[in-house]
Amino acid sequence: MDAPTTTRPAPPIKAYDVDRIRKDFPILLEEIEGRPIAYLDNAATSQKPQIVLDAILRYYRESNANVHRGLHELSRRATDGYEGARVRVADWMGASSPEEIVWTRGTTEAINLVAASWGGENLAEGDEILLSEMEHHSNLVPWQLIARKTGAKLRYLELDDEGRLRLDQLPGILAGGRVKIAALSHVSNALGTINPIDEIARQLHEAGALLLVDGAQGAAHGPVDLAALGADFYAFSGHKMCGPTGIGVLWGRAGLLEAMPPWQGGGEMISEVERDYSTWAALPHKFEAGTPNIAGATAMATAIDYLEAVGPEQILLHEQDLVRYAIERLGDFPGIRLFGPENPAERAGVVSFTLDQAHAHDISTILDAEGVAVRAGHHCAQLVMKRYGVSSTARASFYLYTTRDEVDRLVQGLETVNTIFGTP
Amino acid sequence: MTAEVQLSSLYQQLILEHYRKPRNRGDLPDHTVEVRMRNPTCGDDITLQLKVEDDTIADVRFTGEGCSISQASISMMTNLLKGKKLDEAESLSARFTEMMHGDEDAAKDKALRDLRALAGVAKFPVRVKCALLGFDALQEAVRRERE
Questions:
Q1: What is the complex's ipTM, to 2 decimals?
Q2: Among partner residues A369, A376, A391, which is closest to B45 by beta-carbon distance?
Q3: Which pLDDT value is given to residue A48?
Q4: For the stretch B88-104, what's the b/e string if a residue is b when 16 or more beta carbons lie within 10 angstroms of its beta carbon?
């Protein structure tokens, strides 16, 4: 590997054994054109360790049955796995009780649930919903839908030049006294920015507003401590944190969830069904209509076990070390524009950039030919793109198994981009 | 075919040259039809303007932005369209689409002129829609012109 010429990289974190961690992820052995894959698209989805793959298989081999209804042994096993996973998630994030944990298909469904159920019940004309320019489309569109239905208005926190929320705008927006709920991301998927959720929650609560946190990136890239965050709802997905796709969590304060009407109707969520009406099951099953993703929930708990064994704080420090290293190596790369906070401590493992000489799509195609997987596009965050006047960026995103060597391969790949497209 | 060979067949000099110096770029004030076409997955966004007289494309311009493949493809396409009947434009569009789906005869069809340099895109399925963006706009423009 070529050493960077101008800056000296900081020494890697000691006692974090990335090589040992990599052995837990069989897909990292996949080769592209005889080269191991450098998977730098972790903000889109993470890879899965063997124990999570085993958990899925074991569920179907040893426990598969429907939950909560059969009186037979397999149904008991399935129910134990499913409800045990709920307890695991509740303990992990510090929920008051497992009843506060609602299984969903993922972050998107969790946000839609709150927007439709809480929003439908509590929003009216004259009310305001506070969002930000940083939000993923999944934390914008559900609110646009409920705003249209209820007549509530959408307000936005803007971004500063470094990709941080303009918190200076918050007091002014709240002074109007109309904001009923804010929906903000814990960590930006497009910029990597970590938001000061605790401070935002404090100000919102003083103004009598609630806070939903889109934790799709937050839960994956560091510890989630509900008491410290102070939010009212927290939504996240299994697949971004070493778990399977199709499973996610909505955490909500029990009192709020109790007062919310069901969102989808069906089996599992009822207590009694008559011809003209039904009564609802208790929390959390009121929000879980239909046969759930039992294997997914079980395996998501295994993923949490795995991440906790490695150490969420360690993982975040490892990502930040890689971000620091990547910024050092890319900082004076010809034609580059880097997005997001300059201070690596304010961000998770995401490095978003453009090159003057080549479009993000071309960058990604060329990197792919070298076995380096990045994402190119608007990252489902078109408001971020508009804020910075670009149509797309290339994004390299890191996780617990990412190495400095892979960052070096990213830089080498960008040199191939220069060979083809020239330098500005 | 190795990745390097595929890459060099994708990024031919002619493509890069059209990307850096696109032809017929700009506004056509006396256009008769205008179509904006976007690729929502990657953010490419182009506007194609045609001036059609007696069923013939008298002039054509485009604006917008996108990757090298979409921009080069549109640039080459506009060069080809001037003076063509709408029917001819449509058949060129069909021919180009065939080439993008791997048809080797189409890739040798001299009627496509510079656009033949884009034959390598067929090996990159996710990029095919980049190459077709301008032609999608053209087909919509022809449809509207005939209404």
A1: 0.91
A2: A391
A3: 98
A4: bbbebbebbbbbbeebe
